[in-house]
Each structure stands twice: as C-alpha cells, then as structure tokens.
Amino acid sequence: MTMSDSSPIVVLVSPQMGENIGACARAMLNFGVTQLRIVNPRDGWPNPKALEMAKGAKHVVENAHIAPTLPEALQDVHYVYGSSARLRDMVKPVLSPEEYVEAAYSHITQGAKVALLFGPEKTGLTNDDMALCDAVVMVPVSPVYPSLNLAQAVAVLSYEWFRRGQDSNSKNIDEPIALPATQAQLHGLFEHLEHELDVVNFWRVEEKRAKMVHNLRNMLVRANLTDQDVRTLRGIIKSLRR
Amino acid sequence: MTMSDSSPIVVLVSPQMGENIGACARAMLNFGVTQLRIVNPRDGWPNPKALEMAKGAKHVVENAHIAPTLPEALQDVHYVYGSSARLRDMVKPVLSPEEYVEAAYSHITQGAKVALLFGPEKTGLTNDDMALCDAVVMVPVSPVYPSLNLAQAVAVLSYEWFRRGQDSNSKNIDEPIALPATQAQLHGLFEHLEHELDVVNFWRVEEKRAKMVHNLRNMLVRANLTDQDVRTLRGIIKSLRR
Questions:
Q1: What ipTM describes this predicted complex?
Q2: CA-CA distance, B130 to A182, in Å (whole number)?
Q3: 8 Å CB contact of A145 and B30
C-alpha cells in the first residue's frame, strides 16, 4: 500500500468559495492527499475559480466527486472524522491532529476507507453532519484568533498525515480486523429505525425529534457497528414491528 | 514568559502579493505568532490587499516592521532559520519542522531572538539570504507536487510552534547560556573582513568573490560566535592589517 492511493478522503461540506476549494486541493496534493469529495458546493460545479487556485493540483479538483448530500458522499466510507474549531455538546471523542492521523493510518492499513469532513467557511459542520462522525478532530489554535481559514485547516491536517507516512519509526499494524459497516449500511439502519419510530409516534413532541435523532445516531456511531451488527439490528427492528 | 510575547519573528523576504502577506499574518495569529517583519515588499507599503486578507489579524500587518534589506531586518536577532523547499548546496544543518521548533523554543527560553525567513513566492530565499541562516528548515512535502503556497508554509511552521507550546510534557530548559552575537554584530564582522580582503585583493578573480563570500559567511555563522568572539575576531583582523 502506498500513501498516495490510500490516503484519507477529504470531504468539503457545502463550501462557499471556489478559491478555497482550489487552495484546499493544492494543500492536499502538497502532502500526498489526493481524494476530494464535495457536497453541495454553493456556486455550482465545475467552478473555474477552484481550478485556477489549485495551480498544479488541478486534477485533484477535476477528479473530485460531487454529491448532493453528505450521506451520499460517504456511502462507501467506513470511518468518518469531523474537523471542528470548537467543542461540541456531544458525547464524541475529541482527537488532536496526531491522534486522528494515528487512527486514520491504522484504519487505512486495515483496508478501510476514512473520510475527514470540513464544514462551510462561515459556520463549520452542523450537528447533523457531526452526528455521522466517529470522532471530532480539533486543530489547536490560539484563543486570541481561533478562526482558521478552510485551506489552512486542510493543510495542517494533510501535513500531519504526510508527516506520519514519512516517519520511518512508525508502527506496522498487520492483524486484520472485522471492517465496520459502511456509511451506506449505517444510514440504511438510521432511516429504517427512524421511520419505524415515526410510525409508532415515538417522539411524541415533534420539536424534540431532531435532537433525539442526533442522540440516537451518535449512539449508534459510537457502537462501531460491523456489517453483521447492522443486519442484526435491522432484523430486530423488523421483528419488533411485525 | 508567555508564548505570545516571545514567539519566533516571521520575516517575509521580498514578498510579491499583498494577499499572501495578509494570509501569512492570519495564519501566524491563529497559532500565536505575532511578530512580522517584511523586507522590500514588491508592491510597496502599506498594502490594502494585505490588510484585507489578514481578516482578524490586521494588527499583525499594521505592526509589521518594514526593512529595505534583510540584514537591516535582522539587526537585533540572535538565531536565524531559513525555510526552504529544496536542499541547498551549502554546509548547513537541515531541520525538520519539529527540530526547528525545539531549537527555537530553547533559544527563546534563554532570552534570544529567533527569526524564521521565507523567500519570495516564485523563487524562495537566495543563497545570499541563506548564508545568514544558522540552519535550513524543510517542511516535508510530496515529491508529486512540492510547491507549497507561502501562507501554507507559514501556517504549518506556526502550527508546529504553537503545538510545542501546548505540549504539557515539554522539557523546561533553565540554564542560562552565553547569548550569541546579534546579526548586526555578525554583519559588522562580515563587512569588516570582506572590506579588508578587498583591500588586499584576496579574491584575485572577481567572479569568484560572491561564492567565496558565501562560504566565508556560512563558516562564520556555523561557528555560533558570541558577542565576545566577534570582538576578538575583529581585533585580530585589525591587528593583522596594521
């Protein structure tokens, strides 16, 4: 396995400016990260400003996968990390850049697909997006001015990834483990469960639905479900509703 | 000592685009680096584009010291590091970002001033600039596309600096040591020596002067001269010429 054909997938969620998309692609390629996916880019696609700012990384932009929603962008992905500038009110592990890289490296070595999400420039990832994440990654920033430019965040986390690959003392992980469920399988479970809960009017108060869905999804993500676990749970739901 | 009042000084040598100067200032402040010096900015000074791109770091741009030449920008500095994307044909230590940060942290803890130089966007630092540096700092980049944007290089090296300050396990270095000569003292020695060598026609062939000056300066920089060493050497030169 070489680093270039199996690096984390960078997913830009609803990015606003084409210039930033291009700058992200350039920073990715500088550090050996080549797979880009973009969810619902504000200014449409293709975007000439993205190509211009990418300089020598134009092919990263040209080969980007575009998806209308985040779940669609993540269908074949096994592990999802969400970059965030602030602590969230969620029961979710918070990793430093090095800790994220160690985890991603280990997953990728086992054959899993890893995605690293970045939210829109102004607002960052929503709680809906975060609910899909196995962990939050926080780049340490100065409290004096914590507002990191999108491409700078991509650069720092890609740099950490590349640096880890350069490290000749890095541990080798060989034992195969059971792969977790893909995001598509997980999402199928979410929708199945939430649909059945709708049918039985589980939420009672409609305003509480969104919050309770977040909590449920977070809980299921934390469980690190395998493919088989997902099938088992869906079987249980079906049985319970029969 | 807090990190903010004694971080390395970022010196942009002949930067071309105001946008890049602003993006550098923003990335610096994100990672607690506040002192900016600019040598001979191509588009003059002040530069409205630099202010605009700096966003919340406008005061870093406004407080930047502007100097016509690199030696003037470095007068009060004790240790100089030059960032470079490529290996140079010079006998000079090459440091990784972490090694640079360890060295800078140790020097600053002792009360010394440290500068980190970045060359113009297209060409990087010249060999003349590099001759003033104690060591070269290389950010590891992918050979596929090694051309790192100026602000991205500043961001990665500022991030490494900030991360080191966050590390609660970091070693404390307490013993005071003799401070090295400042760049002004060192430059006085260079000019004194080179002038005397001009007078005695030491170079013989004029075309060889530049290369020999580089070698001499590199050698003297490597010697880690103290204030007292510089006075001693200048005394020797004076005596020899009498």
A1: 0.77
A2: 51
A3: yes
